[in-house]
Amino acid sequence: HERTYIMIKPDGVQRSLVGKIITRFEERGYKLVALKLVHATQEHLEKHYADLKGKPFFPGLIKYMASGPVVAMVWQGLDAVKTGRVMLGATNPLQSPVGSIRGDFCLAMGRNICHGSDSVESAEKEIKLWFPEGVVQYTSTMETWIFE
Ligand code: GTP
Ligand code: MG
């Protein structure tokens, strides 16, 4: 199955939303295959957001992302990348539907509490960047109740 890189940003950690966000992915039926709490360096975050270099909000984004620890995760399951983004909501929380993570828990674009890969290619790149040691392979006993 497909894998996506999901990250709880420093505001999500500080606001004690880690458990709630993890629970949403668990309850939907996705399988956790990698997880760690890291205080990332600006250098590392600049690599993560390399596509946005040059945007006016880029320096502020890096400062925000480096302001505290983040929870780095890889979730695996059917259509993980696209459905993961739907579960997060829109980039702007004010445009995120109620029921999505951003639509339920935040208000400002520069404090939108979570990140999700935007394509299968970005997911592969981000998983390598955050988990160079690789992800964990294991069998989930619930799989036959979640997938046909
Ligand atoms: P990520 O999942 O974090 O990658 O968000 P995204 O894919 O929905 O949006 P994008 O990759 O375009 O931007 C990355 C992050 O930069 C966003 O999540 C916001 O935190 C921030 N950002 C994007 N656009 C703006 C903006 O116009 N103003 C501000 N202040 N922040 C922005
Ligand atoms: Mg993005």
TrEMBL record:
Q: Does the keyword Iron-sulfur apply?
A: no
Give me the residues that bind ATP, please: K9, F57, R85, T91, R102, N112
Group of enzyme by EC: transferase
Its Enzyme Commission number(s) read 2.7.4.6
Task: Provide the catalytic activity annotation.
Answer: a 2'-deoxyribonucleoside 5'-diphosphate + ATP = a 2'-deoxyribonucleoside 5'-triphosphate + ADP
Q: Which GO terms describe its molecular function?
A: ATP binding; nucleoside diphosphate kinase activity
Domain Nucleoside diphosphate kinase-like: residue ranges:
1-138
One short Pfam name that applies is NDK
Q: Which PROSITE patterns match?
A: NDPK, NDPK_LIKE
Q: Which Gene3D superfamilies does the annotation name?
A: Nucleoside diphosphate kinase-like domain (3.30.70.141)
Q: Report the SUPFAM superfamilies cross-referenced here.
A: Nucleoside diphosphate kinase, NDK (SSF54919)
Q: What InterPro entries has UniProt attached to this entry? A: NDK-like_dom (IPR034907), NDK-like_dom_sf (IPR036850), Nucleoside_diP_kinase (IPR001564), Nucleoside_diP_kinase_AS (IPR023005)
Q: Which cofactor does it need?
A: Mg(2+)
Domain of life of the organism in this record?
Eukaryota
Which family does the similarity line name? Answer: Belongs to the NDK family.
Q: Which NCBIfam families match?
A: PRK00668.1
Q: What is this protein called?
A: Nucleoside diphosphate kinase
Supply the source organism for this entry: Mycena maculata
**Upper lineage:** Eukaryota, Fungi, Dikarya, Basidiomycota, Agaricomycotina
